[in-house]
Amino acid sequence: MPPQTSTPRYTVPGLSTKDGGRMIDVLRMRLHALNDLALTLKHIHWNVTGPHFIAVHEMLDPQTLAVRDMADGTAERISALGGVPHGTAGVLVSERTWEDYSVGRADAIAHLGALDLVYTGIIEDHRKAAAKAASLDPVTEDLLIEHLRSLEQFQWFVRAHLENSAGVLATTDARSEKQAAAAAGTSRTIPAKQTASPRRTAKKSAVTKRGK
Ligand SMILES: [Fe+2]
């Protein structure tokens, strides 16, 4: 569930506490998305299989480090704005509005198909957050644009594996990570969790895309 509106006691010079609170609320969900992405990238790093194992395994570590740095910068911006960054797994899971990454041990191309959708979700919502920041706080906007430059490059690294010589992406019509993994042309995949928790399935069954 998204958090309540923040109202800091102070914020950065030149910004009202009301607008500082708006930026804190925007960044709070971006922090959750980035922390979740960093965990997901490591999950894929550990569970990737097949002939492309080493290429994908090694490609994901620099992405993980960069995304952890983005989360750190986001959390510190929340603090500078007078807010409280929440970095624990419990708060992340209780406030996020997307499902856990759904692919377990699987072929490299299957994971890349699913990861393409993960990047699409986080990039779309980072762009929306940057647009909100544009009218209130150019410093926060600049931070998010800096993230987007790297996130969009990382998605290109992923998509280059999924694109044919005509420039068509295998995942174009996929609407879920499972569909994207299958469309990427794979063999066997194992779900991240064989049986979803009934509570979480009921709570978030309508949400198929992460990053919101
Ligand atoms: Fe490793």
UniProtKB/TrEMBL annotation:
One of its GO terms (molecular function) is ferric iron binding. InterPro entries: DPS_DNA-bd, DPS_DNA-bd_CS, Ferritin-like, Ferritin-like_SF, Ferritin_DPS_dom. Residues 25-164 form the Ferritin/DPS domain. It comes from the Bacteria. Residues 200-212 have a biased composition (Basic residues). It holds the Pfam family Ferritin. Residues 186-198 have a biased composition (Polar residues). Gene3D superfamilies: 1.20.1260.10. Residues 175-212 are annotated as: Disordered. PANTHER family: DNA PROTECTION DURING STARVATION PROTEIN (PTHR42932:SF3), GENERAL STRESS PROTEIN 20U (PTHR42932). Belongs to the Dps family. This is Ferritin Dps family protein. It comes from Streptomyces pratensis (strain ATCC 33331 / IAF-45CD).
